[in-house]
Design a protein that fits this description.
Blueprint (H helix, E strand, L loop, with lengths): L1 E3 L2 E5 L30 H10 L2 H12 L4 H12 L2 H8 L1 H5 L3 H4 L1 H4 L3 H34 L6 H21 L1 H27 L14 H20 L4 H5 L8 H26 L8 H6 L7 H29 L6 H22 L2 H11 L1 H18 L5 H4 L16 H16 L9 H5 L6 H20 L16 E3 L1
Antiparallel strand pairs: 1-2, 2-3
Helix pairs in contact: 1-10, 1-13, 2-13, 3-11, 3-13, 4-11, 4-13, 4-18, 8-9, 8-15, 8-16, 9-15, 9-16, 10-13, 10-15, 11-18, 15-16, 18-20, 18-22, 20-22
Length: 489
């Protein structure tokens, strides 16, 4: 046995341990060059599978329900999904450091400060687990009703646990299995959802206009709210470095950015748009019933299965990264145990959400409010990458001692911490939902500017404060790859 700054570890297994169908042995420890593999284009299907999504239909329908015209809903859909470029950009740091994004962020926040940020992100990830499992469970319960099972809490719990169990199994197997499985899932899900698309298009009212068209400041407020809801999805995926860290160090940064962004952008835009088109003639306040009304009865179970598979894909990478996040804050659990803990917490939250809250209201409220945190965090991460020219040494990042270059002052990088805090406060003041509005948002008639204010404010603050505090070294050394690495358990 050896020890490292992150706790007890064991000697690394032989190279090639990241194999589909085998449990991934690595946690947050650095991936040596000898074990790097794959090409950037595999990121396309890896990000497509989670985003060929039933939730896209839900969000698209919600845009029309808020009173937007069809053209406005489509414009908001494209604009909000452009933020997938930010998700793709931060993925470039994965191969550079060879470790998890929750470890790389020690450069932005310091060894101690990073723990607070990662724990916050972990909580948000758990909320998204619950949200997606709730969506799949609602669809699954409709299927159980068709086959004659009673509508009882016990059946509800069984459906949730089955879906959660399949998801956690994918996360436990890890990176290589996810890459291989998601390639097949992206094709299967696309075929099913394109069939739904054809059915919706035959019923679309292309001349649709709202019964009471929005005007003035209220129109701007609804447009901003719709943009926030759509943008919340790409802003929630700060885990993209986790899924690219096995790529060779010299993989093109442009290729990583574009394949990641395109994999998520294309299906998100397409199926959110289809949700909006469906709402021109269907009542998308109950998305499942609305979509089932335009399809033959035999196809409804196929859609339910696709919804469940998409949820497994979506939550699989979320649970996978959440397990890595638990390790990065110092919780000494094997990656598999960390994933199981995340799964149990997410399942409990799902049961609560399913039995207590209205699903559609929960979706909109979460997506509008969560951006006050996720936007600033993503902005600080991306800005730090630019400032450091993406030069991160994974071995240095794993040093959590007081002599670490990322200890800063009392373990906190004041530049990153204050930039994130300042951006979050500013975004909160400018945030607004259907039930709550920050002071500045209320003064502007409910206009929700949380995304642009949070992102731009945090980016500018981090840039300025890094120079003011002198927390950014002139260059971050890249240590030559070591012949052996360690595996965290």
């Amino acid at each position: 046995m050896e020890r490292s700054a992150t706790g007890p570890v064991v000697a690394a297994a032989s190279s090639g341990q990241d194999r589909a169908g085998s449990f991934e042995s690595r946690g947050i420890d650095c991936v040596p060059d000898s074990e790097r593999h794959g090409r950037a284009r595999e990121l396309f299907t890896l990000w497509a599978a989670p985003n060929v999504s039933y939730l896209s239909f839900v969000v698209g329908g919600a845009l029309i329900l808020t009173g937007l015209s069809l053209a406005e809903a489509l414009a908001v859909t494209v604009a909000g999904n452009l933020l997938w470029l930010l998700t793709g950009f931060i993925a470039v740091s994965g191969p550079a450091a060879g470790t998890s994004g929750s470890v790389i962020s020690r450069a932005m926040y310091g060894v101690v400060g990073n723990k607070v940020v990662v724990l916050t992100g972990w909580l948000i990830a758990s909320l998204y687990l619950a949200l997606n499992w709730s969506a799949a469970s609602v669809a699954g319960l409709g299927l159980t009703g068709r086959i004659g099972l009673p509508d009882t809490p016990a059946v509800d719990a069984l459906v949730v646990c089955l879906i959660a169990g399949a998801t956690i199994l994918v996360a436990i197997y890890g990176h290589a299995t996810i890459v291989r499985l998601y390639g097949a899932l992206s094709i299967l899900l696309t075929v099913v959802f394109l069939a739904v698309t054809v059915l919706v298009l035959t019923r679309t009212d292309w001349s649709y206009t709202p019964a009471e068209p929005l005007t003035g400041l209220h129109r701007l407020a609804v447009l901003a709210s719709g943009f926030t809801i759509v943008a919340s999805a790409p802003l929630s995926y700060s885990n993209s470095p986790d899924l690219s860290r096995y790529l060779p160090r010299d993989t093109s940064a442009k290729a990583i950015t574009l394949w990641t962004a395109l994999g998520a952008f294309l299906p998100s835009v397409l199926f959110t748009a289809i949700g909006s088109l469906a709402a021109t003639t269907l009542d998308m306040s109950d998305p499942q019933a609305a979509l089932e009304s335009v399809m033959p009865s035999w196809f409804a179970p196929v859609l339910v299965i696709a919804v469940v598979l998409n949820t497994v894909a979506n939550n699989g990478i979320t649970a996978y990264s959440s397990g890595l996040s638990m390790q990065s804050v110092g919780i000494r659990l094997h990656r598999v145990l960390a994933v199981l803990v995340v799964g149990l917490i997410g399942t409990a939250m799902t049961l609560f959400a399913l039995l207590v809250f209205d699903f559609l209201t929960a979706v909109n409220t979460l997506m509008e409010l969560v951006v006050v945190i996720t936007g600033p965090c993503m902005a600080v991460y991306a800005t730090d990458m630019v400032l450091r020219r993406n030069r991160y040494d994974g071995e240095q990042l794993h040093d959590q001692s007081r002599t670490s270059p990322f200890w800063y002052r009392a373990g906190v990088n004041r530049a990153g911490a204050l930039a994130t805090l300042g951006g979050t406060v500013a975004a909160t003041l400018c945030a607004g939902t259907g039930t709550w509005a920050g002071p500045l948002s209320a003064a502007m008639g409910g206009l929700n500017l949380a995304v642009p204010v949070g992102i731009l404010g945090s980016a500018v603050l981090h840039w300025a404060l890094s120079r003011a505090f002198g927390t950014l070294p002139p260059a971050v050394a890249v240590v030559p790859p070591r012949p052996a690495a360690t595996v965290q358990h």
